[in-house]
Amino acid sequence: MKGPDLEHVPGEWTMSDQEWWLSTTMIWGCCLFLTCTVTIADPDLWGHTLYGLRAIEQHVLVEYSDPFCYTEPGAIWVNHEWLSELSFGWLWSSFGNIGLWLWRNFWLLVIFIPAWIALRKFKASLAAAILLLVYTAFCLSQFVVFVRPQLVTFGCFALTLLLLRHYLNHPQSKSIWYLPVVMMFWANSHGGFLAGVGIQGVVLLWMGKGVYQSQYQQRDFFRLCITIGLAWTVTLINPYGIQLHQMLWDHLITKQIVREWQPLWDAQQALLYYIPFLLIGLAFFGSRKWEWIDLILIVVIAYQAISHIRHVALLAIAVIILLPMPISDSIRRLFPYLNQQWGGERRRIIRSLLVASTMLVVSGLAVHTIMKLWEESVPPWQIGVETRSRAPGMPVASIEVLQDQNLNGNILTDYGWAQYVIWQTFPESRIAFDGRYRTVYSAKLEAELVQFQKLDKNSHGPTPLLDQYPTEILLLPASLNVLGYLEQRKDWVQIYNDQQATLWLKNIPRFQEVIAETKRKRLAIPQVPKWCLFPADPKTLTHK
């Protein structure tokens, strides 16, 4: 059978603007609902909120030296998230968890509104709009379930990309002057503003090439140069000046032990992380309606996504903003019969059923997740804390044991638990290392932590974190192999363990009473709920 002539197939399903607007808006709303209703505490949320509270109490913008650790006391602290943390502290002190929940959802709007504008501006077909919105929502849901300053990067990245892409199509547009404002706010809220610097550089070079080839006028290029130059300059308006840039570049080029800083192929991850790559393949291999600047930007961002898992979210945002037109064209070419049969006024009911079915599936998944957590006493406007696993699960039971036994001192714990431990034990106790990494700690200390985590029952001899620093208490995940190493040491005694965590005390005089008591009778495991509400203070929980 002879196939249809693709040149005479409608470029998109024929429909009125009103139908397109109504359909995409409803799908957009369901996707926003999917991403904004369930909120889980990020492992660093306790630190972010505490640092903001301390800044407010001390009437300062930042603390320039670290007060929380015993391994490198007084170390210089370059806090690239200070403005976000100031917001966290004020919102939580004023409105509780709902304030933080609303902050997270505001930034989801900042992500999704530019996405919807891009779909409209670049004339996405209804099928492409549904595909991009739903798959982007599923991919982003893996990243935006947490309240974290990184959401500022997601939102500002979406705004920056939309502004730059719009300027390339409309060089006389004055909206490009918003770019310095976005960059100044971004640079003080999260270090991810370097992503904005990168894509601005790419667009600037592209437009410079366009001037050389007479595709753009010189005055439009000079306007972009001035705007981007100003945008880069205002990133120096921060409490640290150029030192902020130096710290971030050092952090970026150094291999990190955090899972989300690992290359995509090195860590186990959800299949949803690969969705943007599938959509990229659909756009560039199935369509002829793509532009070289979009391909270049996508390649640059995709390289970062492959290098660091956390940048997959930026790639998902770039795909929905840059590729509506080529994906629309690709769907048209891959499914020409469908495009013909579902177009026109007579097929409006079928299209409505497709939209309704998509809304039902997306909303149903969201409601299912909401109900599961609500059964655990975590309503959708609250922030849940899981208490059974490693981070983002928190060792609530172990902290309750420490508090019941009045134990305090220098605590070495998992980096994912450390800021929860700071919240619960500071100032009586200090920690060895936490999730702030290179913003505070040296590469030497980080290497010593990695070395400690790699110890097992076959390891022997001293280790820096236990023998060169005044470590007194260990709060470690029960799954670590290092527990086999500790069992061989006579100077450390395990006083508590459950399925999640273990507690060890150094065999020193001030702990002898507790050590003797635990030898006579094992400490009971506190019965804490599987899920509780942030900040998960043990003494305020309802035990089950």
UniProtKB/TrEMBL annotation:
This is Glycosyltransferase RgtA/B/C/D-like domain-containing protein. It comes from the Bacteria. It comes from Gimesia aquarii. Keywords: Membrane, Transmembrane, Transmembrane helix. The chain crosses the membrane at residues 20-41, 101-119, 125-144, 188-208, 220-242, 267-285, 290-306, 312-331, 352-374. Coiled coil: none annotated.
